[in-house]
Amino acid sequence: MEDYPVKKISLLVCLLIFCSPALLAQAPQHPRILHAPKSSATPVPPRERPAGLHPIFSNLNKSLTDLYNQYDGWTISGPNSSAGTSFIALPFIPKSNSHAVQIRVPVHYVGSGANQVDLSLYTDANGAPGTLLAGPVTVTNLALWGTCCTLTVASFPPVALTAGTQYWMVADTPLTGTGSDFYGTWDFIAPNLFLEAGDSGAGWYPFDGLNNNSAGEVLGTIP
Q1: Are residues 168 and 89 in contact, defined by beta-carbon separation less than 8 angstroms?
Q2: For the chain, domain boundaries
Q3: What's the mean per-residue pLDDT of the chain?
Q4: Which pick of 88, 128, 166, 171 has the fewest CB atoms within 10 Å?
């Protein structure tokens, strides 16, 4: 009987720790998924890969008229958009030492805010984007969400990548000014088993994609 008050106190402490709204509010929000209405629009083949560039990483489908799932994707939105801050990062690991020069991703415009997004390459820092390697490259006039198979493309000077090392493709916006109200989506590919990363305004954090992963590829030269 002497342990009963201690057990009650311990239970109360646990409830206060795990159920406190203030503490729960500190947990990062899981990125939002957008679902587009199905359409019968004629697929548009993507821009061809530049001559001399090879895939350092790609999870796109092989069919040029079915590269990705154009109906479902993660929200990409700036802090001044109607959706609030929602940035997404996709990890990749080069199989060989290489030099990256281009990112190609199905990031599309939902129809609100400035029609532009920033694409970048980052190092890894404990399972989330770390140091900026290339970019941000501002890409404008994105295709409307629900179309396939247009890719948003960003090019930059060659960046050396090391085989077996994790890096990140990042889609985000400026925190203020033009583009900070962008509202769009990064479309999905078939389920994968790796983590992604999100930033809802308080810094990058890894999250389980719940079998929904962003599509995209990194092109460059492989010695």
Answers
A1: yes
A2: 30-221
A3: 79
A4: 166
Task: Domain 30-221: state its class.
Answer: mainly beta
Task: Give the number of other CB atoms < 10 A from CB of residue 91.
Answer: 21
Supply 41's token pair. Answer: 């629009």
Q: DSSP letters along 52-82, please?
A: T-EEEEE---S-TT-SSEEEEEEEEE-TTST
pTM metric for this prediction? 0.77
Taking the alpha carbons of 126, 130, 133, 136 in that order, is the dihedral positive or negative?
Answer: positive
Do 213 and 192 touch, CB atoms closer than 8 A?
yes
Q: Give the torsion through C-alpha atoms of 38, 113, 68, 88, to 10 deg.
A: -130
Q: End-to-end CA distance of the chain: give it in Å, rounded.
A: 73
Contact between 69 and 217 (Cβ < 8 Å) = no
Q: Higher-confidence residue: 209 or 8?
A: 209
The residue to which tokens 């198979």 are assigned: 149
Cα gap 27→120, rounded to integer Å = 25
pLDDT at 67: 86
